[in-house]
Design goal:
Elements: H1 10-20, E1 24-27, H2 36-43, E2 51-56, H3 61-69, E3 74-77, H4 81-93, E4 98-99, H5 101-109
Parallel strand pairs: 1-2, 2-3, 3-4
Length: 113
């Protein structure tokens, strides 16, 4: 694996993805200019083969659902990144969906359960 680019905001992420055509794009939900979900949506046209993995501290169920329904293959909580990032990257690159163990913990402790 090799990192081929970095972006400081969502708009730059779209531009770099279009230019570099990466296999995998890691995005945060809370990016300036364009949030991660908007950036992922804009990336999907010029870079349709790229797999998107969100790495975020946002645990809102609706945000997670929006990220995953918007073409992302994975979602990792920043608190779990040390344990899960490599596994998430490998899973997503194989075309499998990956969700952080933190999402399972969040759902287990939510008041609706």
């Amino acid at each position: 694996m090799q990192i081929i680019g970095e972006a400081s905001d969502g708009l730059e992420a779209v531009q770099k993805a279009t230019e570099l055509q990466p296999d995998l794009i890691c995005l945060d939900i809370g990016m300036p200019t364009l949030n991660g979900i908007e950036a992922a949506d804009q990336i999907s046209q010029p870079v349709p083969a790229a797999k998107i993995l969100f790495i975020s501290q946002d645990g809102d169920e609706e945000v997670i659902a929006a990220a995953l329904s918007n073409g992302a293959k994975g979602y990792v909580f920043k608190l779990d990144v040390a344990r899960e990032l490599l596994l998430a990257v490998e899973s997503v690159l194989r075309g499998q969906r990956f969700t952080s163990a933190g999402i399972t913990r969040l759902r287990a402790t939510s008041p609706s359960n």
